[in-house]
Specification:
three-stranded antiparallel sheet, alpha+beta, 40% strand, 2 domains, five-stranded antiparallel sheet, 183 residues
Length: 183
């Protein structure tokens, strides 16, 4: 959805770009599809197609039944890429990386970033493309799955000329960002 925005004398339209997390099917240990149902108020269970309760839930990832994710603690599967690739990422998570002068200097000198897979714990945790990059004399880790350039291209492709007008309630002033943020 596109929104109108005026900053001083500048008028433009904006569209939120946000990362879309990949989805994987919930399955039992045999790879059969399962679904979550409400057993009673506030109690949910996983059931198969015949409505039999399933004790363990797995995900179907690349055609394989897999258990929940564990947080990445170590990997030897990485590569050096141009730092511009890291800055094109639409980050879902950002981490400060503790000082490692040798790595910081190497990445700054070569204008490179380290790219690797990174996961957080559980099924609802994330799995990301992670970049460690030098920025303003510090090492930062950006995690995400979408790139700004791709999201912008998609936004331009679906750009609509219609902007919905906002109705106002008579006698009541709408809150504005200027009321909340002091510059």
């Amino acid at each position: 959805m596109w929104y109108s925005l005026k900053v001083g004398d500048n008028v433009f339209r904006i569209k939120r770009i946000q990362a879309v997390k990949p989805k994987f099917a919930d399955v039992d240990e045999n790879g059969n599809s399962i679904s979550k149902v409400c057993k009673q108020k506030g109690i949910y269970v996983w059931v198969d197609k015949e409505n039999n309760e399933v004790m363990n839930r797995y995900k179907l990832i690349n055609g394989k039944v897999m258990s929940s994710l564990t947080r990445t603690k170590e990997t030897s599967n990485f590569k050096e890429v141009e730092s511009s690739e890291a800055f094109d990422l639409l980050p879902e998570q950002v981490f400060y990386v503790d000082r490692n002068e040798a790595l910081l200097n190497r990445l700054q000198e070569k204008n490179k970033a380290l790219l690797f897979g990174y996961t957080t714990s559980g099924f609802e945790g994330g799995f990301y493309r992670a970049y460690i990059v030098a920025e303003k004399g510090e090492l930062m880790m950006y995690c995400g799955n979408e790139y700004k350039s791709k999201a912008i291209a998609e936004a331009k492709a679906e750009q609509s000329t219609k902007v919905k007008s906002k109705a106002t309630i008579k006698g009541v002033e709408r809150a504005k960002a200027d009321d909340l943020i002091k510059l």
